[in-house]
From TrEMBL:
<keyword id="KW-0413">Isomerase</keyword>
<comment type="subunit">
    <text>Homotetramer.</text>
</comment>
<comment type="function">
    <text>Catalyzes the dehydration of the S-form of NAD(P)HX at the expense of ADP, which is converted to AMP. Together with NAD(P)HX epimerase, which catalyzes the epimerization of the S- and R-forms, the enzyme allows the repair of both epimers of NAD(P)HX, a damaged form of NAD(P)H that is a result of enzymatic or heat-dependent hydration.</text>
</comment>
<dbReference type="GO" id="GO:0052856">
    <property type="term" value="F:NAD(P)HX epimerase activity"/>
</dbReference>
<dbReference type="InterPro" id="IPR000631">
    <property type="entry name" value="CARKD"/>
</dbReference>
<keyword id="KW-0418">Kinase</keyword>
<feature type="binding site">
    <location>
        <position position="376"/>
    </location>
    <ligand>
        <name>(6S)-NADPHX</name>
    </ligand>
</feature>
<feature type="binding site">
    <location>
        <position position="162"/>
    </location>
    <ligand>
        <name>K(+)</name>
    </ligand>
</feature>
<keyword id="KW-0511">Multifunctional enzyme</keyword>
<dbReference type="GO" id="GO:0005524">
    <property type="term" value="F:ATP binding"/>
</dbReference>
<comment type="similarity">
    <text>In the C-terminal section; belongs to the NnrD/CARKD family.</text>
</comment>
<comment type="function">
    <text>Catalyzes the epimerization of the S- and R-forms of NAD(P)HX, a damaged form of NAD(P)H that is a result of enzymatic or heat-dependent hydration. This is a prerequisite for the S-specific NAD(P)H-hydrate dehydratase to allow the repair of both epimers of NAD(P)HX.</text>
</comment>
<keyword id="KW-0547">Nucleotide-binding</keyword>
<comment type="similarity">
    <text>Belongs to the NnrE/AIBP family.</text>
</comment>
<dbReference type="GO" id="GO:0046496">
    <property type="term" value="P:nicotinamide nucleotide metabolic process"/>
</dbReference>
<feature type="binding site">
    <location>
        <begin position="130"/>
        <end position="136"/>
    </location>
    <ligand>
        <name>(6S)-NADPHX</name>
    </ligand>
</feature>
<dbReference type="GO" id="GO:0052855">
    <property type="term" value="F:ADP-dependent NAD(P)H-hydrate dehydratase activity"/>
</dbReference>
Amino acid sequence: MKLYSAKQIYKADQISIKKEEITSDELMERAALQLFNWIHLRMQGAPVKIHLFCGIGNNGGDGIALARHLLDHGYNISVYVINYSEKRSKDFLINLERLKTRKCWPSFISSDDELPEIGKDDIIVDGIFGIGLNRTPDDWVAKIIQHLNKSEAFILSIDIPSGLFTDQGPENLEAIIKSNFVLSFQTPKLVFFLPQTGSFIEQWEVLDIGLDPEYLMATETDYELIGNNEALSVYKPREKYAHKGTYGHTLIIGGSYGKMGAVCLAANAALHAGSGLVTAYVPKIGYSILQTSLPEVMVLTDSNEDLLENIEFDFEPTVVGIGVGMGTNNKTVTGFTEFLNKNKKPLVLDADALNILSKNKSLLKKLPENTILTPHPKELERLIGTWKDDFEKLDKVKKFTKKFKCIVVIKGAHTIVVQIDKGYVNTTGNPGMATAGSGDVLTGIITGLRAQGYTALDAAIFGVYLHGKAGDIAVESTGYQSLVASSLIESIGSAYLDLFKIPEHPVVEESKGQ
Ligand SMILES: NC(=O)C1=CN([C@@H]2O[C@H](COP(=O)(O)OP(=O)(O)OC[C@H]3O[C@@H](n4cnc5c(N)ncnc54)[C@H](OP(=O)(O)O)[C@@H]3O)[C@@H](O)[C@H]2O)[C@@H](O)CC1
Ligand SMILES: Nc1ncnc2c1ncn2[C@@H]1O[C@H](COP(=O)(O)OP(=O)(O)O)[C@@H](O)[C@H]1O
Ligand SMILES: [K+]
């Protein structure tokens, strides 16, 4: 699913109005009806108090139009206009007049006015700001937002939580609505998935207001949301006459004294992802550990007992995944450097391989094109430096991937795969996966997919999706706390099978939490 920017949504808006020969007011009415139907279906006329807080732009207009429909169906409503500007939009005013003809007069709230009382069992509809927010709200508006956030009432946001910018990082975290549910028009917004702002959204759903499909289809977006459909579209079925050679030979290089488990996890995950053959290259100390715990995996050892020093092997792997549990000892740095000097195979780099690169940036030039790097936030910071907000981080990563012709997998609650100008935002995974070794499993899955002939980009995107889905399936039987990295591996098979399940519900996303 494409994630459109505010500019693109406004453009779609204009094109739809022109093509369909409708007025902007009619489009607002469509949006309001969709909002109303969604609420009415769930509330069935229940007499719960609904407070509608509306701004003076089109987001507020949506709220005022919704208020009319709620009123017409006998709901118990109060309407407030947050009067933060004199520049009321035309469609807001049209809808305000319609509401007044029904003898419903909103309370206009300005800077010094008292804030209305809200019960914790009430419902708040948040229509203060939409995608038109272009500067931080004034302090008195921020105070109203905090008042709503503290009320404990259920907050339903129209289009986007008020106070969140659509395409830039937040400036004042105290001036953003904490939504329980967002009904977002036509497209979810990128900020729903970023670490700094995602926590303002508990659940979201898209309401299709019928913006011009031709424009939407033809428009390229900077970000795409990866769900079941996108994952399924890259999936490669197995062929009847295939043999293990068809599905590639994965080489996992890593491990050091006390950290051999990381290699076991990555190698096992590569097997479960479908790699035909898997070899692990480890310090001597790892030989029996791997042979005992993973009979399917072949093992080669370094000349050094406890760490990697001379990475040498005499076969042709399809792809190499390197770095897990490897450590950053000087001898390993030398061995890794020499390996990069010789290597011609596709690479997946994780953990200490990334840490070594961060300290020896000249090595980045030695990476083959389309190398996949899988940093967690701290490793990413070592690699690209600090960032002011998530948008700066994404810009820096895009530049980095352009410069070094690589792919970066920014790991997190919604992992984002970045290649040059485009980001792919994952939808699977849960906080149970914040556990030792789950990154090693991801490295194994991505390397194992690459071995099977997936392009680097597809392997990264699909691998991240499968990994998160395995986590979502595993957590159903383990619970969040007891999910361990090995249970992710056991669920990779179910994650594949899940690709072919027909979804029971429309797109409803829950933020990842208990
Ligand atoms: N195609 C669609 O998806 C459809 C979208 N629709 C709806 O329209 C919504 C977008 O509406 P919108 O453009 O009128 O802007 P909105 O968010 O209501 O903000 C109001 C105005 O406030 C101003 N302003 C900004 N920041 C400010 C600040 N800090 N403090 C004070 N003022 C500030 C700024 O104007 P400015 O003062 O900068 O000129 C801005 O224009 C969208 O989210 C959806 O709900 C549907 O109706 C139908 C189809
Ligand atoms: N809250 C979360 N929601 C979804 N996925 C998560 C969450 N926390 C961690 N993960 C995933 O778990 C993995 C953790 O990787 P990493 O930090 O490298 O762990 P380790 O080094 O222990 O293997 C990443 O793929 C990340 O996206
Ligand atoms: K809103």
